[in-house]
Amino acid sequence: MSILRQAVQEYVSMRRNLGFKLRDAGKRLFDFITFMEQHGASYITQDLALAWAQQPSNAQPDQWAKRLRFVRGFALYRSATDPRTQVPAKGLLPFQPKRARPYLYSDAEVRDLLHAAVNMPYRRERDKLRPWVYYCLLGLLSVSGLRLSEAQNLELPDVDLKEAVLTIRGSKFGKDRLVPLHRSTCKVLADYIRRRQRHWRKRPVSDYLFVSGWGNRLDSGDIHRTFYMFSRQIGLRGPSDRKGPRLHDFRHRLATRTLENWYRSNQNAERKLPTLSAFLGHVHVADTQWYLSGSPELMREAMRRLEHRWEERP
How far apart are CA 194 and CA 165, in angstroms? Predict the structure, then answer.
């Protein structure tokens, strides 16, 4: 193994131990080392990094910027042991990613989605629990702020209905956290778990809270396809729409509703923002602050407070 390949392996291992998944970055960095070996290079140069990052030539600019960002991170690490290393300068392949515009579900739309879920038709006996699986999954997403992957990975021991808390394990950046539940949510989950136990009492099933008709963890693709079906059924999407409200938008709904309630009750939303960040599993408060821009009501409230503050100045 070459020195550079060993260095990449150590770098990826170190970052993963710190909680970063580096699924794509790990593979791409080894591709970069192969590219360097083909050019007979023994250390990282900015020219080589740029040449590799801009492959393939027909890729989108965001992909070029992403590839160069992978190399920059590794180069910073490598420069500590090899002073010849050139760290690619920032701004060489500028690209400003566009965040998807959040959709804020109304209460009526959430009710319609849940109604569509619990009334979902099924043909096989093994799918008899499926309507309740999706009813509880969508309901939990709408009131908990969980990421879809976090809800998918919930196991029965992670659901403590007596203490009204969920344990989220190994979420983004490898962090664990506790998510409190309202008693009404506990009641619905308790009913679902009883149905789940009756449905699977004579057959083997995994420990995942939300399972497919085969008894294993729900597949992400199936979840999205089913959600799109519900969305079209209630008019959130047209029959041929490729874009529309997302499952992830349930997080936006919870965050904005929480902030709106704090403002309306004259609480110090800015001071309480770190609490909401911890609840959502955000690493930086700035990630939570972004939700302000997604709600017209929050923007109006922010402007009202700003105007009030200026009026109070002498």
Answer: 18
Distance set, CA 56 to CA 26, 52, 59, 67, 136 (Å):
18, 9, 5, 11, 43
Catalytic one among 115, 172, 217, 232? Answer: 172
CATH of 107-234, one of 1.10.443.10, 3.50.50.60, 2.70.98.10, 1.25.40.10: 1.10.443.10
Measured in degrees and rounded to the nearest 5, phi and psi for residue 262 equal: -65, -45
Q: Is 199 a catalytic residue?
A: no
For the chain, the domains span 3-78, 107-234, 249-312
Task: Find the catalytic residue in 11, 134, 263, 291.
Answer: 291
pLDDT tens digits along 127-154: 999 999 999 999 999 999 999 999 999 9
pTM: 0.71
CA distance 268 to 298: 14
Cα dihedral value 171, 176, 181, 185, nearest 10: 40
Q: Give the integer Cα–Cα distance in Å for 272 and 259.
A: 9
* Torsion angle of the four alpha carbons 9, 14, 85, 46, in this order, in degrees rounded to the nearest 10: 80
Tens digit of each residue's pLDDT (9 = 90 or more) over 6-39:
999 999 999 888 877 788 888 999 999 999 999 9
